[in-house]
């Protein structure tokens, strides 16, 4: 009995690293992780419902507009306006601006298409705004402008010694030229856009008929949609944007976001809105919102398409999507107070701009896709205490997806690929929106989207202008690989221990992340 020593009972603590991690996980899973995941789940469910309601609302509006023939641009008697204009011969002075930056492959296409527009030559000015840093290319662009000048077209070639304000700065300085003072309307085409020769006759009359119109926007028509799978998937997303979002905005509130090109502005509307500003990377949307707050109305002409080019490399597409996601979020941060305090527009229009246009479409849509479908749902598989509501997990996203995809019937068989690709891109879009909201690094990053020219030249360009292969570090995308590993782990866990078949989706999505990652 003397040798007996009373000791406190010891708790077994695992010695190896794997057992230690497993032990720590079991200790924090129920009291910490489960409540946090439920909070994330409820937030994502709320955002999903918001997005679902918005999509259904726009679908109902577009069905009504099409069935009842209520598209706003069809209300105008365009032919009668054309006849009156030709009879009176009081043609307004029109300025065409073509901003470009090192556009070697497309400058001839855009300049040629603009100079080929049918309009009285003495009432038309084509202004080429060349910010190119390549002196040889500048000389080629100037030579092309001289060629058209010799053919009787009034072409003004303008250059700058800097790129202050990027595209917005070029457009702003272009409007300050003395020869622009007599112009009533300005048409903007990016360097890869090729309008049909009757473009002005199908847009200007709307502005002449209705003095309250500040903008007439045409839709985009893609010349390289069939080049690869990625361009087909881009076409599906953009077709929905033009067919539904732009048409609904035009038909209900006379407001939508200017697409930055293929549009005709009343110069007075630009001046009333305060001109072009370069405070964000979406100068086009910035101008549209400010002009709308001044009471100007917009018109979307859905049956007028302008040929242009989709990004055909993943690097170019990533940069474009960063700009298109970061810019609106940053503009939302800057303009929310101004929109709320504006007394010139109705409460309904304010609500539409703040809630539907900015919050749901530009922020919630990206966050739901990434955080819910790529983070919360996979994570809930690892934690059986969290139960996913089937209607929200299956039915809502299925409905949203179908409503998006029906706008491009020829690509319905690519629906699965589109879902997987959009989920991968939601990683970058969500990151970009957060950068924009917080005004973090890269908030004002502007990388011009690389263009290769029209479809008849692309294969040739790919061979003759092929760049040196990128370094391994530039070709591997770490975030995508991390997401791929996470979803693969969740898929394997679901196969071994799960009671549903979510592993099918997780394996496909993990494969998509790995493909993009490498």
Plain-language structure description:
The structure is a single chain. This protein has 518 residues and is an alpha/beta fold. The protein is built from 17 helices and 7 strands. A 7-stranded mixed sheet has the order 3-2-1-4-6-5-7, sandwiched between helices. Helix 4 links the parallel strand 2 (124-130) and strand 3. Helix 1 (17-67) runs antiparallel to helix 11 and helix 3 runs parallel beside helix 4 (135-150). It starts with 16 loop residues before the first helix and ends with a helix. Mean pLDDT is 89; it is low at 458-468. It is a multi-pass membrane protein. The chain crosses the membrane at residues 39-65, 364-383, 395-421, 476-496. InterPro entries: Glyco_trans_2-like, Nucleotide-diphossugar_trans.
């Amino acid at each position: 009995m003397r040798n007996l020593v009373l000791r406190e009972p010891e708790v077994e603590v695992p010695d190896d690293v794997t057992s230690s991690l497993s032990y720590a996980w079991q200790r924090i899973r129920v009291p910490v992780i489960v409540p946090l995941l439920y909070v994330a789940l409820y937030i994502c469910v709320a955002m999903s419902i918001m997005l679902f309601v918005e999509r259904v609302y726009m679908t109902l509006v577009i069905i009504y507009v099409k069935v009842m023939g209520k598209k706003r641009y069809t209300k105008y008697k365009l032919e009668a306006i054309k006849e009156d204009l030709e009879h009176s011969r009081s043609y307004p002075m029109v300025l065409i601006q073509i901003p470009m930056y090192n556009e070697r492959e497309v400058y001839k296409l855009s300049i040629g298409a603009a100079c080929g527009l049918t309009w009285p030559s003495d009432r038309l000015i084509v202004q080429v705004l060349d910010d190119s840093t390549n002196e040889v290319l500048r000389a080629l662009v100037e030579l092309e402008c001289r060629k058209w000048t010799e053919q009787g077209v009034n072409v003004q070639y303008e250059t700058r010694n800097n790129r202050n304000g990027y595209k917005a700065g070029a457009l702003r300085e272009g409007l300050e030229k003395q020869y622009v003072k007599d112009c009533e309307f300005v048409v903007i085409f990016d360097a890869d856009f090729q309008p049909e020769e009757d473009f002005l006759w199908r847009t200007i009359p709307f502005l002449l008929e209705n003095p309250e119109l500040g903008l007439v926007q045409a839709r985009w028509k893609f010349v390289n949609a069939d080049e690869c799978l990625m361009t087909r998937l881009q076409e599906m997303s953009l077709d929905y944007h033009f067919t539904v979002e732009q048409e609904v905005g035009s038909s209900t509130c006379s407001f939508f976001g200017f697409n930055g090109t293929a549009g005709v502005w009343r110069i007075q509307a630009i001046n009333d809105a305060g001109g072009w500003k370069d405070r964000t990377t979406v100068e086009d949307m910035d101008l549209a919102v400010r002009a709308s707050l001044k009471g100007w109305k917009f018109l979307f002409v859905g049956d007028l398409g302008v040929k242009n080019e989709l990004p055909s490399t993943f690097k170019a597409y990533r940069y474009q999507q960063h700009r298109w996601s970061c810019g609106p979020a940053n503009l939302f941060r800057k303009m929310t107070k101004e929109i709320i305090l504006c007394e010139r527009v109705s409460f309904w229009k304010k609500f539409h701009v703040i809630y539907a246009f900015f919050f749901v479409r530009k922020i919630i849509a990206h966050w739901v896709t990434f955080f819910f479908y790529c983070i919360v749902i996979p994570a809930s598989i690892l934690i059986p205490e969290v139960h996913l509501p089937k209607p929200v997990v299956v039915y809502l996203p299925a409905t949203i997806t179908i409503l998006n995809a029906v706008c491009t019937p020829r690509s319905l068989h690519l629906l699965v690929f589109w879902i997987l690709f959009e989920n991968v891109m939601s990683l970058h879009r969500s990151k970009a929106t957060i950068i924009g909201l917080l005004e973090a690094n890269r908030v004002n990053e502007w990388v011009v989207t690389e263009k290769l020219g029209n479809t008849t030249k692309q294969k040739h360009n790919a061979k003759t202008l092929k760049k040196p292969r990128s370094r391994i570090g530039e070709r591997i995308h770490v975030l995508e690989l991390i997401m791929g590993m996470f979803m693969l782990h969740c898929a394997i866990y679901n196969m071994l221990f799960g009671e549903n078949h979510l592993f099918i989706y997780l394996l496909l999505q993990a494969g998509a992340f790995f493909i993009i990652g490498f």
